[in-house]
């Protein structure tokens, strides 16, 4: 579910692409990275959101562009 925006205000594309449950606005992380590649991604949602808000994990699409808290998952070598 996308964030609810005020109809009388112009919003950026990253604000419009942000889902409820994200730790920060979408597309504010490194270029060409997605939530599915982030170490904070778990149970279909964001652990950083949980850490910052103390709210429950809310699920959103894994192909969402990453936010400023993006941390790459460790590669299993």
Keywords for this structure?
77 residues, little secondary structure, globular, 2 strands
Present the secondary structure layout.
Layout: H1 13-16, E1 41-42, E2 45-46, H2 47-53
Antiparallel strand pairs: 1-2
Describe what you observe in this structure.
The protein has 77 residues and is largely without helices or strands. It has one domain. It is 14% helix and 5% strand. Strands 1-2 form a two-stranded antiparallel ribbon. A hairpin with a 2-residue loop joins strand 1 and strand 2 (45-46). It is globular, with a radius of gyration of 13 Å.
- Taken together, the total number of domains comes to 1
Rg is 13 Å
- Would you tell me the overall average pLDDT? 91
Q: What is the count of β-strands?
A: 2
- Helix proportion range: 10-25%
Q: List the secondary-structure elements in sequence, H or E.
A: HEEH
Q: What is the straight-line distance between the termini?
A: 35 Å
Q: Give the helix/strand class.
A: little secondary structure
How would you characterize the largest beta sheet? 2 strands, antiparallel
Rough outline: globular
Q: Which percent range describes the beta-strand content?
A: 5-15%
Number of helices: 2
Low-confidence stretches: none
Task: Give the oligomeric state of the chains in this entry, treating copies of one chain as homo and distinct chains as hetero.
Answer: single chain
Main-sheet strand order equals: 1-2
């Amino acid at each position: 579910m996308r964030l609810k925006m005020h109809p009388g205000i112009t919003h950026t594309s990253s604000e419009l692409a942000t889902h409820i449950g994200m730790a920060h606005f979408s597309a504010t992380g490194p270029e060409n990275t997605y939530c599915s590649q982030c170490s904070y991604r778990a149970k279909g949602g964001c652990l950083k959101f949980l850490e910052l808000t103390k709210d429950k994990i809310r699920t959103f699409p894994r192909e969402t562009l990453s936010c400023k808290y993006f941390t790459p998952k460790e590669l299993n070598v």
